[in-house]
Amino acid sequence: MPKAILTLNAGSSSIKFALYEHALRSQRLISHGAIESIGGTPHFTARAMDGTVLERRAWQRRAAMSHEDLLQPLLSWITSHLGEEALTAVGHRIVHGGQLYHQPVRIDGTVLAELEKLVPLAPLHQPHNLAAIKAVSSLRPDLLQVACFDTAFHHDMPAVAARLPLPQSYVDSGVRRYGFHGISYEYLIGRLSALAPTLAKGRVIMAHLGNGASLCAMRHGKSIETTMSFTALDGLMMGTRCGSIDPGVVLYLQRERGLDPAKVEHMLYHECGLLGVSGISSDMRDLLKSQDSRASEAIELFVYRIVKEVGALTAALGGLDALVFSAGIGEHASPIRSKVCDALSWLGVEYDRAANDRHETVINTVHSAVHVLVIGTDEEALIAERTADVMRIPSQPRQTTSLSI
Fold it and tell me: Taking all residues of the chain, what is their mean pLDDT, rounded to a whole number?
């Protein structure tokens, strides 16, 4: 009977999952899928590698369903699909690890309590990540659960890059630049190292462009700077998030427009970005198809902010050897890649339009001063790999609390 690792990426409206066969030194993807439309009419779909639907279930009523309600069908399906004892561990994507967690870790009561304290730093993601942990603990208390952190990859950024210009008392309490999308960036630098080992050791900017978007500057495969900061609200313009904004705007909204902190937070996370500028959609696919001038304005601003931040990160790196596009927009929206590359011609970026339109891995011309690549990210694969790493390390006895919910 094969042993298996389940990965979970729990968000506010969906729970993405992947199931891997766990061998001694490798993990093979068995199936993947999602529980979608949470808060509306939820439905669960599991697919084989070739896209064949293996299981599908839908709830016909709009009802408030807990993560436990939603994950029960998934765990039951895994049991029926692989056997009672097959599932050995669950690896979770956890957005924020704070200053304490910068490696994957076994989840127990102490770890969970520490992660709860970080909810104010990632209010859009952390509560849902932790809800999935609690649900699995309730449904399958025997399972090992492992937390993999989006902030971990940036933990060793240079101190000058991590520091915010605030009084020391705030810095001492953990107010610093953390950075996010680290699971994706760790996977991407691993793929680049396999494709072009020498290039991966050079000056590289990774562009994780999706509904959430950020850039990461790497040297020798390590993060030295990134666009997201204390929260996942900073940096690039995103689907519904504003990205970098003058703090004075927040003060103005509260003082002059009468918005309380909760309303400001909701607006900045849910009503800005591509959606706010266009008034049409947060989905780049919709905007690229639209003839509305507001869609064009949103695209123009999205690209402008990327190009501006690439310039800043290139300065931090002292030059640029490679630019890598990834995630939903980065991998699939060739017009966005074209606009970014055109605007970076001053850096010596030259790209092959045909190769770009075909979504090839290498899209730069032979004369380009900067290598330009498109590499698909796979956060689930990295979570499975890191969960397997933790499984190989014997559990150390210590004074701790059990994970009982």
Answer: 90
Q: Are residues 247 and 350 in the same domain?
A: yes
Q: Judge contact between 403 and 112, C-beta under 8 A.
A: yes
pLDDT digits (tens, 9 = 90+) for 155-178: 999 999 999 999 999 998 889 999
**The residue to which tokens 């859009």 are assigned:** 124
Asked whether the beta carbons of 190 and 196 are under 8 A apart, the reply is no
> Are 332 and 387 within one domain?
no
Which is the catalytic residue, given 50, 108, 150, 172? Answer: 150
Whether 51 is in a domain gets the answer: yes
| Sheet (strand 203-209) strand order | 222-226, 213-219, 203-209, 322-326, 371-374
- The per-residue pLDDT for 404 is 41
Q: Tell me if residue 50 is catalytic.
A: no
Q: What is the pTM of this model?
A: 0.90
Q: What is the CATH number of the domain that holds 54?
A: 3.30.420.40
Taking the alpha carbons at both ends of the chain, their separation in whole angstroms is 30
Give the chain's radius of gyration (CA, Å): 21
